[in-house]
Design goal:
By secondary structure, the chain is an alpha+beta fold. The chain has a single domain, classed as Aminopeptidase (3-Layer(aba) Sandwich). The chain contains six helices and ten strands, in the order αββαααβββαβαββββ. The strands form two sheets. Strands 1-2-3-4-5-6-8-7 form an eight-stranded mixed β-sheet, with helices on both faces. Strands 9-10 form a two-stranded antiparallel ribbon. The longest helix is centred in the middle third of the chain and has 15 residues. The chain is globular, with a radius of gyration of 17 Å. The termini are far apart. The protein binds coenzyme A (COA). The site of coenzyme A (COA) has 22 residues, from helix 3, strand 5, helix 5 and helix 6. Coenzyme A (COA) binds next to helix 3, strand 5, helix 5 and helix 6.
């Protein structure tokens, strides 16, 4: 069931979303599959030692990272990548245990590309995709001093609790009552907020545009 929903979602978004920024870089958001495992490992290896530790909650050698990417359960993962000028610079993963309606979100953005909104784009994509395939909740785990992750989880409405030395932040993915299903009879799948008439750019109210000038 999960695999079918996931595959139909990724087939539809195979070409990805491409943004051309004013000052040059080509930014593409698309779903990742097992064929991207090498790129995925390359991205994780380029994280700074501190960011790599924040991502995995422990030190990870290059070999361990390569093994993680190769052995990731790609069939039960929803993963999105952000490619900048063709190189994978940010990854968001939503891992789901077989038969579960709860997932775990992890996210990473390379240092030079941080603070430009990419983390928020990745987490938002995972929240929408998780909702679309019928998950009820998603968890994010991070160490207490990880303020960027705390800000990110707050931005998607996650509720943090402190347990066993890590912050566990839970996002409720159940669609609010005022959402209209994309397809009638689609159960919990296919929810999309109807845009208000004449509601401009399609960006969420208060959301910030991607700003490639931050890639200093
Ligand atoms: C966490 C991470 C993915 C954020 O990526 P990013 O692309 O910089 O994220 P964004 O640009 O969308 O910014 C995230 C938020 O952090 C805030 N932020 C950035 N630097 C900050 C800082 N030093 N202190 C507090 N908040 C900060 C931003 O203002 C933003 O909040 P806002 O949208 O409310 O303004 C990135 O820092 C990273 O890869 N960290 C290492 C891996 C990790 O910690 N993963 C989490 C555990 S799985």
């Amino acid at each position: 069931m999960f695999v079918t929903s996931r595959n139909s979602l990724f087939r539809r978004s195979l070409s990805g979303l491409v943004f051309r920024t004013e000052d040059g870089p080509r930014v593409e958001l698309r779903g990742l599959t097992e064929y991207d495992a090498k790129e995925h490992a390359g991205h994780l290896k380029r994280l700074s030692p501190q960011d790599r530790r924040l991502r995995f909650h422990s030190m990870m050698s290059d070999n361990a990272v390569a093994l993680y990417s190769r052995r990731m359960d790609w069939q039960h993962a929803l993963a999105f990548g952000i490619f900048i000028d063709g190189t994978l610079r940010g990854v968001g993963e939503l891992l789901v245990a077989d038969g579960s309606d709860d997932g775990e979100i992890s996210v990473s953005v390379e240092h030079r590309f941080q603070k430009a909104g990419l983390g928020r784009v990745l987490v938002s994509a995972l929240v929408l995709a998780g909702r679309r395939i019928g998950l009820k909740t998603a968890h994010m785990y991070f160490v207490p001093g990880n303020e960027r992750m705390r800000a990110l989880s707050r931005a998607v409405g996650a509720k943090p609790t402190f347990a066993g030395g890590v912050v566990e932040s839970v996002i409720d993915l159940e669609p609010p009552a005022d959402r209209t299903p994309l397809r009638s009879g689609g159960g919990r799948r296919g929810w999309l907020k109807k845009p208000a008439a004449g509601s401009g750019s399609g960006r969420a109210p208060g959301s910030k545009p991607l700003n490639s000038r931050h890639f200093a």
